[in-house]
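so the lab meeting is tmrw and i was supposed to have these ready like two days ago... anyway. pasting both below. for each one the top line is the aa sequence and the line under it is the C-alpha coordinates. i havent really looked at them closely yet so no promises
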Amino acid sequence: MMRLSGALILFVLAAIPTYAQQTAATLVGAVTDSTGATVPNAVVRATNLATNVTREAASDQSGSYTIPFLTVGDYSVTATQKGF
Protein backbone atom coordinates (compact mmCIF):
# COMPACT_ATOMS: atom_id res chain seq x y z
CA MET A 1 0.00 0.00 0.00
CA MET A 2 2.88 2.38 0.81
CA ARG A 3 4.33 1.90 -2.67
CA LEU A 4 0.97 2.69 -4.30
CA SER A 5 0.45 5.91 -2.33
CA GLY A 6 3.99 7.07 -3.19
CA ALA A 7 3.28 6.49 -6.89
CA LEU A 8 -0.05 8.28 -6.56
CA ILE A 9 1.63 11.32 -4.96
CA LEU A 10 4.19 11.47 -7.78
CA PHE A 11 1.41 11.26 -10.36
CA VAL A 12 -0.52 14.09 -8.72
CA LEU A 13 2.58 16.29 -8.46
CA ALA A 14 3.41 15.65 -12.11
CA ALA A 15 -0.08 16.77 -13.11
CA ILE A 16 0.29 20.22 -11.51
CA PRO A 17 0.56 22.75 -14.31
CA THR A 18 3.88 24.51 -14.75
CA TYR A 19 4.33 27.98 -16.15
CA ALA A 20 6.69 28.89 -18.97
CA GLN A 21 9.23 31.63 -18.63
CA GLN A 22 8.00 35.13 -19.33
CA THR A 23 9.30 36.63 -22.58
CA ALA A 24 8.25 40.19 -21.83
CA ALA A 25 9.19 42.77 -19.25
CA THR A 26 7.84 45.98 -17.78
CA LEU A 27 10.01 49.07 -17.52
CA VAL A 28 9.14 51.20 -14.49
CA GLY A 29 10.86 54.41 -13.46
CA ALA A 30 10.64 58.10 -12.67
CA VAL A 31 11.78 61.10 -14.66
CA THR A 32 13.72 63.69 -12.67
CA ASP A 33 15.76 66.74 -13.63
CA SER A 34 19.34 67.52 -12.57
CA THR A 35 18.14 68.89 -9.23
CA GLY A 36 16.13 65.75 -8.46
CA ALA A 37 12.74 67.38 -9.07
CA THR A 38 10.16 65.20 -10.80
CA VAL A 39 9.21 65.92 -14.41
CA PRO A 40 5.51 65.35 -15.10
CA ASN A 41 4.16 64.77 -18.62
CA ALA A 42 7.54 63.78 -20.08
CA VAL A 43 7.49 61.39 -23.03
CA VAL A 44 9.57 58.29 -22.23
CA ARG A 45 10.67 56.18 -25.21
CA ALA A 46 12.17 52.70 -25.03
CA THR A 47 13.73 51.65 -28.34
CA ASN A 48 14.81 48.05 -28.96
CA LEU A 49 18.35 48.33 -30.36
CA ALA A 50 18.08 45.16 -32.47
CA THR A 51 14.65 45.78 -34.04
CA ASN A 52 14.35 49.58 -33.72
CA VAL A 53 10.80 49.09 -32.37
CA THR A 54 9.86 51.96 -30.07
CA ARG A 55 7.33 51.95 -27.22
CA GLU A 56 6.46 55.09 -25.31
CA ALA A 57 4.59 56.33 -22.27
CA ALA A 58 4.03 59.64 -20.53
CA SER A 59 5.16 60.29 -16.98
CA ASP A 60 2.41 61.13 -14.51
CA GLN A 61 2.26 64.09 -12.12
CA SER A 62 4.85 62.45 -9.85
CA GLY A 63 7.21 61.78 -12.78
CA SER A 64 6.53 58.02 -12.71
CA TYR A 65 6.06 55.97 -15.88
CA THR A 66 5.43 52.36 -16.87
CA ILE A 67 6.06 50.71 -20.23
CA PRO A 68 4.66 47.15 -20.16
CA PHE A 69 5.12 44.16 -22.48
CA LEU A 70 8.62 44.88 -23.77
CA THR A 71 10.17 41.97 -25.63
CA VAL A 72 13.54 40.61 -24.57
CA GLY A 73 16.46 42.70 -25.79
CA ASP A 74 18.70 45.69 -25.25
CA TYR A 75 16.97 49.07 -25.12
CA SER A 76 17.82 52.73 -25.32
CA VAL A 77 15.58 54.79 -23.03
CA THR A 78 15.08 58.54 -23.47
CA ALA A 79 12.79 61.11 -21.86
CA THR A 80 11.81 64.41 -23.43
CA GLN A 81 9.75 67.33 -22.20
CA LYS A 82 9.24 70.79 -23.68
CA GLY A 83 11.52 73.28 -21.98
CA PHE A 84 14.14 70.67 -21.01
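ok protien two:
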Amino acid sequence: MGLKGREVSVLFTEDHEMARLNKAYRRKEGPTNVLAFSMLEGEVVPHSKVLGDIVISLDTAEREASQMGIPLFQHVVRLMIHGLLHLVGYDHEEDEEAMTMDKEEERLISLAISNEVEHQEA
Protein backbone atom coordinates (compact mmCIF):
# COMPACT_ATOMS: atom_id res chain seq x y z
CA MET A 1 0.00 0.00 0.00
CA GLY A 2 3.02 2.29 0.14
CA LEU A 3 2.40 3.34 3.74
CA LYS A 4 5.79 2.59 5.26
CA GLY A 5 6.81 5.35 7.64
CA ARG A 6 3.28 6.79 7.86
CA GLU A 7 1.47 7.39 11.15
CA VAL A 8 -2.08 6.60 12.24
CA SER A 9 -3.63 7.27 15.61
CA VAL A 10 -6.20 4.82 16.96
CA LEU A 11 -8.66 5.72 19.68
CA PHE A 12 -10.65 2.97 21.37
CA THR A 13 -13.76 4.41 22.96
CA GLU A 14 -17.25 3.62 24.23
CA ASP A 15 -20.62 3.92 22.50
CA HIS A 16 -21.60 7.22 24.12
CA GLU A 17 -18.45 8.96 22.83
CA MET A 18 -18.77 7.31 19.41
CA ALA A 19 -22.40 8.49 19.16
CA ARG A 20 -21.24 12.04 19.93
CA LEU A 21 -18.56 11.87 17.21
CA ASN A 22 -20.95 10.26 14.72
CA LYS A 23 -23.47 13.06 15.31
CA ALA A 24 -20.86 15.83 15.14
CA TYR A 25 -19.01 14.65 12.02
CA ARG A 26 -21.52 12.57 10.05
CA ARG A 27 -24.81 14.00 11.33
CA LYS A 28 -25.96 10.48 12.13
CA GLU A 29 -27.63 9.38 15.36
CA GLY A 30 -26.17 6.68 17.58
CA PRO A 31 -22.84 4.93 17.70
CA THR A 32 -21.09 3.23 14.82
CA ASN A 33 -18.29 0.68 14.94
CA VAL A 34 -15.51 2.71 13.27
CA LEU A 35 -14.88 6.27 12.12
CA ALA A 36 -11.89 7.45 10.11
CA PHE A 37 -10.63 11.01 9.89
CA SER A 38 -8.18 11.34 7.02
CA MET A 39 -5.44 13.96 7.00
CA LEU A 40 -5.18 13.43 3.24
CA GLU A 41 -8.44 15.28 2.60
CA GLY A 42 -8.80 19.04 2.45
CA GLU A 43 -5.64 21.04 2.92
CA VAL A 44 -2.88 18.45 3.03
CA VAL A 45 0.25 19.35 4.95
CA PRO A 46 3.20 18.73 2.61
CA HIS A 47 5.47 15.88 3.70
CA SER A 48 3.22 14.97 6.62
CA LYS A 49 3.68 11.41 7.81
CA VAL A 50 0.26 11.41 9.47
CA LEU A 51 -2.50 9.61 7.56
CA GLY A 52 -5.20 10.39 10.10
CA ASP A 53 -7.19 9.02 13.00
CA ILE A 54 -9.23 5.85 13.44
CA VAL A 55 -11.84 5.70 16.20
CA ILE A 56 -13.31 2.34 17.22
CA SER A 57 -16.18 1.79 19.64
CA LEU A 58 -15.25 -1.27 21.65
CA ASP A 59 -18.84 -1.54 22.89
CA THR A 60 -20.16 -1.87 19.34
CA ALA A 61 -17.23 -4.04 18.23
CA GLU A 62 -17.85 -6.42 21.13
CA ARG A 63 -21.55 -6.76 20.28
CA GLU A 64 -20.78 -7.34 16.60
CA ALA A 65 -18.04 -9.89 17.33
CA SER A 66 -20.40 -11.77 19.63
CA GLN A 67 -23.14 -11.78 16.97
CA MET A 68 -20.67 -13.04 14.35
CA GLY A 69 -19.19 -15.62 16.72
CA ILE A 70 -15.63 -14.36 16.30
CA PRO A 71 -13.06 -13.14 18.83
CA LEU A 72 -13.18 -9.42 19.64
CA PHE A 73 -9.50 -9.04 18.66
CA GLN A 74 -10.21 -10.42 15.18
CA HIS A 75 -13.10 -8.01 14.67
CA VAL A 76 -11.08 -5.05 15.93
CA VAL A 77 -8.35 -5.91 13.41
CA ARG A 78 -11.03 -5.90 10.67
CA LEU A 79 -12.30 -2.51 11.85
CA MET A 80 -8.78 -1.09 11.94
CA ILE A 81 -8.19 -2.27 8.36
CA HIS A 82 -11.54 -0.82 7.31
CA GLY A 83 -10.65 2.51 8.90
CA LEU A 84 -7.18 2.49 7.33
CA LEU A 85 -8.69 1.96 3.89
CA HIS A 86 -10.92 4.98 4.45
CA LEU A 87 -7.85 7.02 5.44
CA VAL A 88 -6.16 6.31 2.11
CA GLY A 89 -9.23 7.10 0.04
CA TYR A 90 -11.37 3.96 -0.21
CA ASP A 91 -15.11 4.36 0.16
CA HIS A 92 -18.25 2.23 -0.01
CA GLU A 93 -21.00 4.68 -0.94
CA GLU A 94 -21.38 3.31 -4.48
CA ASP A 95 -21.68 -0.43 -5.30
CA GLU A 96 -18.51 -0.54 -7.41
CA GLU A 97 -16.51 1.33 -4.75
CA ALA A 98 -17.88 -1.01 -2.10
CA MET A 99 -16.78 -4.09 -4.07
CA THR A 100 -13.28 -2.65 -4.57
CA MET A 101 -12.99 -1.75 -0.89
CA ASP A 102 -14.31 -5.17 0.21
CA LYS A 103 -11.72 -6.94 -1.96
CA GLU A 104 -8.86 -4.90 -0.53
CA GLU A 105 -10.19 -5.34 3.00
CA GLU A 106 -10.31 -9.12 2.56
CA ARG A 107 -6.80 -9.14 1.05
CA LEU A 108 -5.38 -7.21 4.00
CA ILE A 109 -7.27 -9.33 6.55
CA SER A 110 -5.84 -12.48 4.93
CA LEU A 111 -2.36 -10.99 5.23
CA ALA A 112 -2.95 -10.06 8.87
CA ILE A 113 -4.26 -13.55 9.69
CA SER A 114 -1.40 -15.33 7.91
CA ASN A 115 1.13 -13.08 9.68
CA GLU A 116 -0.52 -13.82 13.05
CA VAL A 117 -0.40 -17.59 12.37
CA GLU A 118 3.28 -17.35 11.39
CA HIS A 119 4.00 -15.32 14.53
CA GLN A 120 2.23 -17.86 16.76
CA GLU A 121 4.15 -20.76 15.19
CA ALA A 122 7.54 -19.07 15.67
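from a quick look at the 2nd one: The chain has one domain: 7-121. The mean pLDDT is 88. will dig more after coffe
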